[in-house]
Amino acid sequence: YKFRDLTIEELKNVSKTYPNFTFSMNTYTFKDGSQKDLLNFSGTVPVKYGNSYNIPIRLWILDSHPFAPPICFLKPTANMGISVGKHVDARGRIYLPYLQNWSHPKSTLTGLIKEMIAKFEEELPLYSLSSSDAARQSELLSYIAKITEGETDLKSSSKTGGKNEGRFNKITVVGAGDLGIACVLAVAAKDVADKVVLLDLSEGAAKGGTMDLEIFAVPDVEISKDFSASADSKVVVLTVNSLGNAQTYLDVIQSNVDLFRGIIPAVSHYSQNAVLLVASHPVEIMTFVSWKLSSFPKSRVIGVGANLDSERFQYILTNLLKAEVLAKDAWVIGEQGEDKVPSWTSCNVVANQTEAMAARNSREKVANRAMEVLKGKGQRSWSVGLSVADLTDSILKDKRKVHSVSTLAKGCCNINSEVFLSLPCILGTSGVIEMVRLEEDPRVQEKLQSSAGSIHDLQQQLKL
């Protein structure tokens, strides 16, 4: 356990308040099949719902506690049935606002249990079975035991399951601002996913664009304020940006980091095999932050980067400058904004050095003209939304298409720091499959190294 003393102190407080709990160390099986020995405790919590009831629960403590919330389950006996509701699913998994908003040191295990009791008193999570139902329930106890010891790959016979369950493509968009709604509409228009969940994290009732989505009922789109609605997403798109009163650029970024600290662990927890696609600003730093907070492999955390610029760049070369041969190997890479740079993934072999130099100069002139045209094109929410839909389409359909996206650049172009920059990458269901080799160009490498240096300096000043 990374924070052993803090964890032990928390468990002591639980034991004082709820002496009936028993503590143990057992193996927890995650949804991806990985296993880990974790502390856990089980017992009953007192609930008044007309009469007094003792509700059996089991909580698993992750090794990053207290900075990550525990995993919570009901632990029904043979004569108990699970009442599926907004806080409990059919497998007995417990979902609460307290878990979704978990933030140390404000959030504690005893505070969590108190909220659990309060929510269970509003909606009792278990009910008594008849003798015949209890007999059938006993046949399911082995399955429930596996569930309460972790996620399994066993298929449910519920109506949400079926032959196509493994291929069900679900996307979650986090943030219901203009960009978030643009992403939802673009994904829906391209028919990329079977279901899109829009997580609206704003305070109060639905308003603005979110309300309009509800009014006009876009098919296969669900709007929720509950992180559990994102469960089992294949792609999670992050569009949120803090609107705090920050005074400096560093304050703005730190405000976004603080916002992500409450989001990334939650969405990573509910969708442990997802690809995180970051569209928040600054995209390079927020992709790095998402990678660190999620503990996902680098291949499954990417930023939208220069995908939109690259697509526009290729379009300008092909349709406006009639340089179709150049366009197929042309990319915009590096840092999003003024410091982006055009590059190439291959070059034609020319007979002699003089011709090679002439060809390079000609290509650079065309590229400079294209970049000048590109400067006049702003990145509006709907255009970024279309870019996000393009990327999710390549990921979900395993297209193995090349995109310029923010990826971990360490080891590329003599970059030795952990920074994310836009580079041409082949995308598939597991995110980045392979980085495409760039043509060697000292000026491009110098630009990338300069961007990497400034980004790394900013990252060193952040409090993660």
TrEMBL record:
GO terms for molecular function: L-lactate dehydrogenase (NAD+) activity. Residues 1-130 form the UEV domain. InterPro entries: L-lactate/malate_DH, Lactate/malate_DH_C, Lactate/malate_DH_N, Lactate_DH/Glyco_Ohase_4_C, NAD(P)-bd_dom_sf, UBQ-conjugating_enzyme/RWD, UEV_N. GO terms for biological process: lactate metabolic process; protein transport. It catalyses: (S)-lactate + NAD(+) = pyruvate + NADH + H(+). Pfam families: Ldh_1_C, Ldh_1_N, UEV. Interconverts simultaneously and stereospecifically pyruvate and lactate with concomitant interconversion of NADH and NAD(+). This is UEVLD enzyme. It comes from Ptilorrhoa leucosticta. The lineage of its organism: Eukaryota, Metazoa, Chordata, Craniata, Vertebrata. The gene is Uevld.
